[in-house]
Give the backbone structure.
Amino acid sequence: MKWFDHPASDTQITHRSRLWLYGFAFLVLVFLVLPTLIVIPMSFSASQYLEFPPKHFSLRWYESYFQSRSWMQATVTSFQAAGLTVIVATPLGTIAAYGLYNAQLTIARLISLLLITPIVIPIILVGTAVFYAYVKLNLVNSLFGIVLAHSILAIPIVIMIITSALKSFDMNQERVARSLGASRVKAFFLVVMPQIKFAVLTSAVLSFLTSFDEVIVSLFVSGGDNSTLTRNMFAALRDQIDPTIAAISTIMIVVTTLLLAIAQLFGRNIKH
Amino acid sequence: MQRTPPTLPLSDDHSVALRKDQSAERWLMLSLAGPALLLVLVCMLLPVGWLFYLSFFTEDGAASLVNYRNLIEQPSYARIFRTTFEVSLLTTAICALVGYPLAYFLSQLPTRIANLCMIAVLLPFWTSLLVRTYAWLILLQRTGLINTWGIDLGLWSEPLPLVHNMTGTLIGMVHIMLPFVVLPLYNSMRTIDRSLIQAAANLGASPVQGFWRVFFPLSLPGLMAGSLVAFILCLGVYVTPAVLGGGKVIMVSSRIALDIDTFLNWGSASALGVVLLLLTFLLLLLASRLTKGLSLLGSGH
């Protein structure tokens, strides 16, 4: 193999003397990827016990998931919460980002900072604070409460994405539209919106995922008939290892991957 | 950026009116952030403030510092802080040691291949935390895959205690935090000017010398930034030690949840929360200072 003796970099070090680095990097990449992927074949195992690769395949764990009333209820709650979070967080975050970007006042920077705090401070504190507020407001275990709490976590992400999209947009275009007689609202929807629409779609997808994957705040504020999927999974992980969770995990991996692929497609269209 | 319109001679009345218009416009724009701000204020910022306030009262409502005194005097709290720092430091150190060679390897690849490998680094970022935690349970438990394989291959005869303890917690935490270290590190390595290393080689430095005396110092800001972010995130984790630690690794977050869930002790949970929050902000401040200072140092070379 001549390749080994070829220089690997500008400093004339050969590939041979870098083999340890390649091996090590490969192992770390395997460490990062494999644990997640191993869940998928496990979910199709016919056995109650963990074996890899599974000797016999079956769909029994998917069956047990789809036939369980509590898992189904939790799944519905999670999808509802995530969908509603998109509906609340995307518009609120988008107009906030648009307004703060155009306000050009010192106080706007302070408000931006305040709106970003939910993803900066430790999540357990967000959970505690929201729970405390909900006890007073009587919102614990309500779908409405979960949606508001998840929106708080999604809004910072929406604001960051929209703000970065607005930076590449020339606001004079909007001014032109308005000087030609378009109303403020019309100018926003006809001139600004078409140019940031991919950023808006990306932030909608990420809002969905923020809610769908959220664990800790859900532990505090969801429960009873409105338990989220993540809350039930967390409880199940602490008690016993039920292969049903492998099936649910696989479904979650598929949902996440699909949504991120969509976001990626949108992201490619964002002008930079 | 906005272009300034050509200035026309305006009468005073007009310029006053224009200025008023502009100011009204700006406040109108600001008001668009109102709904989002209201939501964050009511559901989070005000309750956090209220919890701050609560931490200075006893359960009977008398003002006192008893919650904070407990944090210092009760050995159970000292243990929690020690565990939190131990886990956070070890995780960060392992991430730095493991992440550095990986980031270096990626930074040496052609960009297109490196981007492909990046998917592997980002995959854990994307998948749900609970899915990853479950995966580690499958792999690490007594009858898990690693123990089964190890015993089948004759590497060890008794199942190793890999999970529901410190080992399992660390493995899970490193898996979560590694991308946070690798990404900034990789980005900072990519921006290092390769001609500097060529120059070092030209001047007679061996590859090893070139690495340690030129490349490594230039990559330090990225390493620092990544490690600090990972450390800050470690301080607040809840799920991983709760599941993979099996009740043996109790960190600050677990104790806050326990105080509320089991004892409904808002005062002591709040005091602990205040300490965690202050610690986080202090480290964030340090991080922004340090990375600024280091990048200045780096550009001075």
Remarks:
- The radius of gyration of chain B is 26 Å.
- The first helix of chain B runs from residue 12 to 31.
- The domain at 68-299 of chain B is CATH 1.10.3720.10 (MetI-like fold).
